[in-house]
Amino acid sequence: MLEHPFKKRIFAVNLSEKAMKKLIIFDLDGTLLNTIADLAQSTNYALQTLGFPTHPESAYHLMVGNGINKLFERALPEGEKTEENVLRVRQEFIPHYDQHNADKSRPYPGIPELLEGLQKQGVQLAVASNKYQAATTKLISHYFPHIHFVAVFGQRDGIQVKPDPTIVHDILDRTPVSKEEVLYVGDSGVDMQTAANAGVTACGVTWGFRPRTELEMFHPEYIVDQADAIIEIAARRD
């Protein structure tokens, strides 16, 4: 497990065909993009529109990660967490978020450079998110237009959300790699569980929405503090 960030030598390692990891699957919110401000803004808009109390942006760090329906359930006050109210919030949230989901969201430091470097070295890249599919696709296209992802999967109708491993299995169906050649990168316990359930190597990142202690509870193979550490992990032969 990596307890300290690597020095900045992001592309000094040559990832050849002998690289340990040939496919890296990234979570989106809290891993590639800091989206919390836009998520909070749109959820608060929906709550206020329906007459429910809103929350400070910081409170949303512990509400996200399990799909938007679970976000709305957590955001609703006690006694109001009904399926009907979740759907009402969703109806207000989605049009607002579709219009405003790139207002304040930004890639985390080092992420664009990491993705570009991995792509140049021939590592396949994919996204596995619990954000609904349309928003996942839009944000990836908006912020990473020059990166080729073999798959960009968000929450899809009829598919269980993470930590169910179906999303990882669907990505693997598109790539000629073994599970041993996959690295799954995420910022939450849900992500670490997803990797474990799918039988792939897990890497937790500490710059996202959840504390390091949550990642440590699930004993991932790696925990990193900076994006550039991931390229060295991809090159390792343990």
Percent of residues in beta strands: 5-15%
Distance between the termini: 12 Å
Total individual domains: 2
Order of helices and strands: EEHHHEHEHEHEHEHEH
Name of the CATH class of the largest domain: Alpha Beta
CATH architecture of the largest domain: 3-Layer(aba) Sandwich
Average residue-wise pLDDT:
92
Q: What structural class results from the helix and strand content?
A: alpha/beta
Could you please describe the fold and organization of this structure?
The chain is α/β, with parallel strands linked by helices and 238 residues long. It has 2 domains: 23-34 and 106-235, 3-Layer(aba) Sandwich (Rossmann fold); 36-100, DNA polymerase, domain 1. The chain has helices at residues 36-49, 68-75, 83-100, 111-120, 133-143, 166-172, 189-198, 212-217, 229-235; strands at 23-26, 33-34, 106-107, 124-132, 151-155, 182-186, 201-205, 222-224. The strands form 2 sheets. A 6-stranded parallel β-sheet has the order 5-4-1-6-7-8, sandwiched between helices. Strands 2-3 form a two-stranded antiparallel ribbon. Residues 1-19 have low confidence and may be disordered.
